[in-house]
Structure formats: structure tokens, C-alpha cells
Amino acid sequence: xxxxxxxxxxxxxxxxxxxxxxxxxxxxxxxxxxxxxxxxxxxxxxxxxxxxxxxxxxxxxxxxxxxxxxxxxxxxxxxxxxxxxxxxxxxxxxxxxxxxxxxxxxxxxxxxxxxxxxxxxxxxxxxxxxxxxxxxxxxxxxxxxxxxxxxxxxxxxxxxxxxxxxxxxxxxxxxxxxxxxxxxxxxxxxxxxxxxxxxxxxxxxxxxxxxxxxxxxxxxxxxxxxxxxxxxxxxxxxxxxxxxxxxxxxxxxxxxxxxxxxxxxxxxxxxxxxxxxx
Amino acid sequence: xxxxxxxxxxxxxxxxxxxxxxxxxxxxxxxxxxxxxxxxxxxxxxxxxxxxxxxxxxxxxxxxxxxxxxxxxxxxxxxxxxxxxxxxxxxxxxxxxxxxxxxxxxxxxxxxxxxxxxxxxxxxxxxxxxxxxxxxxxxxxxxxxxxxxxxxxxxxxxxxxxxxxxxxxxxxxxxxxxxxxxxxxxxxxxxxxxxxxxxxxxxxxxxxxxxxxxxxxxxxxxxxxxxxxxxxxxxxxxxxxxxxxxxxxxxxxxxxxxxxxxxxxxxxxxxxxxxxxx
Lengths: 278, 278
Hints:
Helices cover 41% and strands 15% of the residues of chain A. By secondary structure, chain A is an alpha/beta fold. Chain A has a five-stranded parallel β-sheet with strand order 5-4-6-7-10. The first copy, chain A, has a three-stranded parallel β-sheet with strand order 2-1-3, with helices on both faces. In chain A, helix 6 crosses helix 7 (160-168). The longest helix of chain A has 22 residues, at 250-271. Chain A starts with a helix and ends with a helix. In chain A, 51% of the residues are buried. The A-B interface holds A 97, 113-122, 124, 146-149, 155, 157, 160-162, 164-165, 168, 173, 175-180, 182-184, 189 and B 97, 113-122, 124, 146-149, 155, 157, 160-162, 164-165, 168, 173, 175-180, 182-184, 189. Strand 5 (175-179) of chain A pairs antiparallel with strand 5 of chain B.
């Protein structure tokens, strides 16, 4: 069975619209890119559509690689900007960490600064990485995760590691295992899991025989196969488990959450951080 | 069999002494406390002994609760101080997170600021929490952890969560499961693990029947039972597995690493951070 992620996304959109109305102005998101490839351009296009739909001001700044650091710093200081997104992959020779860590944490709507990632360890989700938060929201919508054995495949900075920390948070209380390319006997582990989160970047990596019947499977993968976008999970898995679709699953909720974070940032600038987050 | 943690600690001490000699001055650690209890006083005393032994300047500042925040900020600005330690538990009514997050990350030798915790997610271990680093060093001394199934019991900010992130780091490559009080059938999980890290704060919580024969068990617990310090693991486990002793195990290495971090901070102030850490 496919999990309906549209309804989750729509609920967040509704809240975003109401909160913008209450704010009384359009918060602004700036996406910074350098030498964007096809998939970056298509992601930025989906940001443009979503922000227009929700009433968020949106600007794309395309700059040469050597100006990335300075641009991030300048936009961080610009009081009219509430959210900053830096598109990856960055051009060769540019240190991704150096660029991302210059984002003002209070405008880091994608949740990629060390500051915002570290806050997750304290259980403080000010700006969690959007994809990780998307996974958590989809799961919470599907089942009570307390005590469930959840396996995360992939240990990336923006999905695997933060989602594992978020699922451990008091109140969520999952038992979390993180696997990756060096894991021995991975499928023994996936088959015993109540929930699988797959973020490996390999088309159809997880097949029905790797999944426990009735499990919940969240597919974070976005792969191009013969010009078609497909996930990390074989669609056949849908027959024995609950599965998020690709496209239109995690990605859809992720883009909506990015916009929600822009609103949150604007709210913090108006009402103060304490009123919003703690 | 007990794991010899003395030798691990001594190797770090040797490196610390050489590096202080190269620096040409004694780095300084300041420990800040407010209404210290018995166990805080005894921990501060062990810091005093260790710093004296290694040639690190050491000062304890005892301040009233309402002056904690300001003291942390002032000491952060003091150029003669290289490391700041804030003793916990803090007095009632003081927000621990508020106090710890005011420490200058470049002097955060205990690794408790959001900034330093978030860097772990990037695989950048500038100042990892000392106890988590102690566990990792002990394990790396005992076995090749690549692909091993490691179970962490406990999800604290300074042990469970950071140690799980550190063990996932590329090059270490463990498969990590984090369990806690809400985990269903905990002992099924502990019995299948190659390595157990126990940080629950309950005397003799893990018994021989919960452990796989030949496993490596790291006991992070410090509990007082009838005036004696004991761990979270029943000493009988030593008969079927490799076990770190309490006292004289993780704690001993932790205090040594705190001093090593003070030296690292001094080195960064002299040579620049890039030369030391990246």
C-alpha cells in the first residue's frame, strides 16, 4: 500500500498560509546556486512553484564559485531575507562544509549548520534538516513509533544521522539502528525491522524479500533511470508493506517543510525565538 | 577479562606532556561550579590531580547560581584560559542548556556546545564529548570495529547520542543500534551485539546472561552502592566477555582526554585551528 504523503504536505501548507496571514507580510527565501546542473534546476523550479503557491517571496542567486562564501555571508546579514538555501552539489573545488557553516543559523532553514544539527542532540528541533523532518512527520502520521525497531540505511549529514537522532528523542522513543555500505548482513537487519528508512541513492536497492511483511518503508531515494525519477525501493514492496511513493513522497513533504521553516524564521524575527521553539 | 584502560590513558598522557613542552607554556583549564555536591567535589579533585601531574594550570571557580551565565561568558572572553568545564548537576532552577551553550566553542573542552556536537555529524571531531571519545578510544584499542554490531544503551547528550554518531564515522564504520528505557526486549538486542556500551546509570543493570560470549562491554556507569563506586555492569560479566573496570576504566580515560582537549585548545590558539583538526 502506498502512503499518502499529499495529505501530510497539504496540512503543513494550510498551517503555513495561516501563519503568513498572521505575520502580515511575505517571508523571503533566497536560494544560492553556482553552476546548477539539471536536477538542481528542477529542484529550484519546484521551490519557485511552492513558494508562489504559499505566498513566500523567492529569489534565486546564481553566483560564480569564488563568490559563494561571500554571497552566503552577505545574504545572512540581509534583514529582508528569512531563509537561505544553498543548492548542492557545489562546483568542484568548493568546500561544502565551509559554505554551509557560514549560513546564519537563525536563517538556516535547511538545517545544515553545525549549530542547528547540534541542537538536535539536545532534542531542540529549531531547524532540523528538512528531509529528516519529512521522514519523521510521515512516520508519526502512520504509526506510534514508541519502542519500534527502526532501521535507517544511510549515514548522511542531512538524512541518516539527523533522522536517527530525531527518532530517539524522548516522546518518540524509537529503538534506532543505522546501517550503511560497511554493514555486514544488511538484509538480516532490514528483515527484522518494523520500519525501514532507505537513503542509499541506488535505484530499487530494497526489494520485497528484504522487508518484513506489514512494515512501514520510507523511500528517501531520488534516482534517474531512463529519464524517469525512481526511488531506492522496488515499487513491488508496496504489495507487502506500507511504502512512500517516489516521486510525490518524502520529497514533496520536504519542499513544503522548507517553506514552513522560512515562515518559522520570520516568526522568530518578529516574536522572538523563545516563543516559537522552546 | 578486564580491559586495561590505564595503558590507554598513559599513552594519551605521554602525548599531552610532549605537546605542552612543544607549546612552551602551561595551558589553563577553569572548572566552574555552583553548590557542588560530594561527587562533583571528588570529580573536581581528580581534575586537580591530573592537571598537576601533566603540567596544566587549573582553577576552580565557585559562584552562586545567578552568576553562572555571566561567569561562563567572562571566562570565555579571557585569553589566558584555554578550556572551560562546567560541573553538573547545576543547582535547581538553572537551565543547563542555557549555561553550556554560552561556552565559547573554541574553549569547549568537554564538547557540550551545540556547535561542537553538530560538528560530529559532519565527522569533524574538534572537541567531542570526553566520555564519548573515551569509549571510542577504548574500543579502537580492543578490536577492529568495522561492520561490527554495536549496541549503545542510553541516549544522553554527552554519551549515547554522540558516541553513536562517532562510531558511524567513515573509517570506523560500525553498525550502531541505540536503545533506552522505552526499548522493547532490550536483552534480545544486547545478546546479539558484538559490542555493548552501557550508560544507563543503574548499578549492575547488565548481567552475564544479557551478553554474547566474547563480546566487548564498555561500562560508562558510575553508581554509589554502600559507599562504593560501581558500574552499570555486573562484574561477573568479566568472566565471559571483555569488560572495562569501574572505577579506573572509562572515567580514567575521560579525565585524561579532558586535559588533552585543553592542550588542543591551546594549540589551536597558537597554530590555528586548521593545522590541528582538519
